[in-house]
Amino acid sequence: MAQIIDGKAISQAVKDEIKSRTAELSAKGTEACLAVILVGEDPASQVYVKNKKKACEYCGIKSLSYELPADTTEEKLLELIAELNERSDVNGILVQLPLPKGIDEDRVLDAISPDKDVDGFHPVNVGKLSIGKKGFVSCTPAGVIQLLKRSGIEISGKECVVVGRSNIVGKPMSMLLLQENGTVTVCHSRTKDLKEVTKRADILVVAIGKPKFIDASYVKEGAVVIDVGIHRQDDGKLCGDVDYASVEPVASAITPVPGGVGPMTIAMLMYNCLASVDA
């Protein structure tokens, strides 16, 4: 039986630690504040924003919400970001993605001050990560590292394979594992003989956006399997990029979907918001 890595419990522990620290700061007259910008009425985005507000409330972090209509121009959005960059009472700025068509996401994300970029997407923070300097790290891969560490899973010296090379998960994930002294291979759509590579992995992180793509034939006996994907199936149930039923019997530890990586993303956003007070 594989160890089930409980993202709900671990994320709760992280949020409780943050709550304790924000209470200490509050007692000294310092408050963490996150500004969240939502453009348009994408239902999934609305749910994510609601969950972020709820987490802020729990952790004792003030949240400011800017819900803009779908026809908001790029220039208006950039003006709001410039205003928030200048405000001393705002520590973190988050623009919920995706943005409506006609708005350049890269330009918008680049406009956020690197010192307030709690999503860890700004080129300055990505650059800091790549050379091992302190900065904000993309929340999902940072959450994966916490899942591994708090589950007692050693990364140093392990063969780590990341399937997926996105800027949000795959690339930062590979760099974080490297920082923890893992030996890292990144796979993608052009990788030849994917199974041969993934079956070498002591730690396999899957973030490719394909439901149940990775089955037991891709996994070495006793590997730790981290599933970053999330998909809603025809029956309404959620699944990941990993075929859990197939892989769980051969893995030594595995994250479920839901309840694995997902809760950690928001917990690490709260962590970054707290860190932004010192930025």
Task: Tell me what you see in this structure.
Helix 1 (7-27) packs parallel to helix 10, helix 2 (43-59) crosses helix 10 and helix 6 (139-150) crosses helix 10 (262-276). The protein has 2 domains: 29-113, Rossmann fold (3-Layer(aba) Sandwich); 139-261, NAD(P)-binding Rossmann-like Domain (Rossmann fold, 3-Layer(aba) Sandwich). The N and C termini lie far apart (43 Å). It has 279 residues and is of the alpha/beta class. Helices cover 40% and strands 16% of the residues. It has 10 helices and 11 strands. It is globular and about 50 Å long.
Task: List the keywords.
single chain, Rossmann fold, six-stranded parallel β-sheet, three-stranded parallel β-sheet, 10 helices
CATH H level, superfamily name of the largest domain: NAD(P)-binding Rossmann-like Domain
Q: Assign a percent range to the helix content.
A: 40-55%
- Please compute the radius of gyration using only Cα atoms: 19 Å
What is the total number of structural domains? 2
Neighbour order of strands in the largest sheet: 1-11-8-7-5-6
Short note summarizing the structure:
The protein is of the alpha/beta class and 279 residues long.
List the helices and strands and how they pair.
Layout: E1 3-4, H1 7-27, E2 33-39, H2 43-59, E3 62-68, H3 74-86, E4 92-95, H4 105-111, H5 123-130, H6 139-150, E5 159-163, H7 170-179, E6 183-187, H8 194-198, E7 203-206, E8 224-227, E9 231-232, E10 238-239, H9 244-247, E11 253-254, H10 262-276
